[in-house]
Amino acid sequence: MASPSQWLAGARPRTLPAALAPVLIGTGVAAHTAEPVWWKAALALVVALALQVAVNYANDYSDGIRGTDEDRVGPLRLVGSGLVEPALVKRAAFLAFGVAAVAGLALAATTAWWLVAVGALCVLAGWFYTGGSKPYGYLGLGEVMVFVFFGLVAVMGTTYVQTESSAGDVVLPSLYGAIVAGAMACAILVANNLRDIPTDKESGKITLAVRLGDGGTRKLFALMVFAAAAAVVALAATTTWWALAGLIVVPMSGRPLRRVLSGAQGRHLVPALAQIGIAQLGCAVALFVALVATA
Hints:
Strand content: under 5%
CATH class: Mainly Alpha
Mean pLDDT: 93
Low-confidence stretches: none
Number of domains: 1
Number of strands: 0
Number of helices: 12
Helix content: over 70%
CATH architecture: Orthogonal Bundle
Radius of gyration: 18 Å
Largest sheet: none
Shape: globular
CATH topology: Farnesyl Diphosphate Synthase
């Protein structure tokens, strides 16, 4: 029987900045271009955090029953370690998906019912990342879907539910903010998959990192960080130059960049995951403060 602390570790709290950051950025854009609706921002945050936890438990379950996690380096896997019965982890994933669905329904009911379809796609994408007979995470499509759902959908959705606007002066800054969040979320996944190249190859999990190889994956990690920085500049150009505070992402990414580009392997890459997550969150907080303060 796993302890509460082990269940918490299984939820992978270090990945939660990837859920918090897009809501902060999307709300900042809403505040700067229109009026923020704080209770909707809070509901969007519940949706994002619940989906992230659900995806983490779903991955733990699906990878665990496939045997992918048997020799995995990194955070605790509940199923792969044998601590928890797979059915219980699956139930935890569905419970978290349910929390996200309830909060999402409240947003749809008070904004637009077509958002229910968007929410359903988010749940399906979360489950089939490693679930089902042909998970797209095993086909090298993980980064694409992370960019779409933790970048475009999360940021632009957060802005939309608060402004209900499709005007260019709202959409364009929201799009640039989505690129910031999406690129940094991809950087987290790239670092994770770089660490796992040897074990993923052995288990038949063909991630983008496996396809690109060690060297190509390290270059992709750097590209994601600098793509986020470029999007910060574009966001500032369409809102306020104070948003250049988001360029803090570059110095904050210095340590994980050095670790990745220096050739660190295996468990020596684990700190890079936490560090790039903190860099993403730091960038999002800076953008949020700059955009809200200059509204």
